[in-house]
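Technical note accompanying the year-one report. For the benefit of new consortium partners, we illustrate the data format agreed upon in the data management plan: each record pairs a sequence with a structure-token string. No post-processing was applied to the example shown here.
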Amino acid sequence: MPFEPIQQEKLSHGVIHQIEELILRGVLRPGERLPSERELSERMGVSRPSLREALADLQERGLLASRAGAGVFVADVLGSAFSPAVVKLFATHDEAVFDYLSFRRDMEGLAAERAARMASDTDLMVIDAIFTKMEAAHQKRNPADEAHLDADFHLSIIEASHNIIMLHMMRSMYELLREGVFYNRTIMFKQRTTRDMLLDQHRAINDALQARKPADARAAVEAHLSFVETALSDQQKADRNEVFAQKRFDHEATR
């Protein structure tokens, strides 16, 4: 776990600052359980009373949440990004899907450009490790696994761009994507040809990042999301055409 001994006169303040920083930087994520009180006090080198004082402060401010019998968790600090009414609008209007993809293309292109310039070697190792998992999942032909890793891959680039505001904003957007608000990501990975192309696109993004080529990284992300946009548009048209093809078939069968 990413905790260090506290070296400060007011120990509870040091605990508060460190946990705040870990949440702010995206190391601790919404819903993640903190270690037990005993383990956390040992890791941070503080007494349990100092730790309890800090945790109580963080809970009072809505950054942590205590669950009876389960422990202390990072609060769902992303849950208020969009109201339930707006989320329903997103889910029922096609234009929201394509505006979402356009928004991602702009934001993630910028994030990839920043990551190629500003990411640490460790950041790039994380991105590369996730891409390696994508390659392994691709061989197993499990669309759900590939779709999950796809989100992790893109979020790791945003994390590597080291822009705190972008990180939390895009995490909120990706939570809606994971929940299928915009579209069903697994559909993108069902066809073998499309899956191969998507993997190649992610490889191009990863290669540009590992080579620290900002312009190439941005272009690779933009090309990838343009492909996703076109593929979704084509799928929507095919679905609409199939509805009428089925009607023609049923009509012909009754003549």
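Partners are asked to follow this layout when depositing records. The mean pLDDT is 86.
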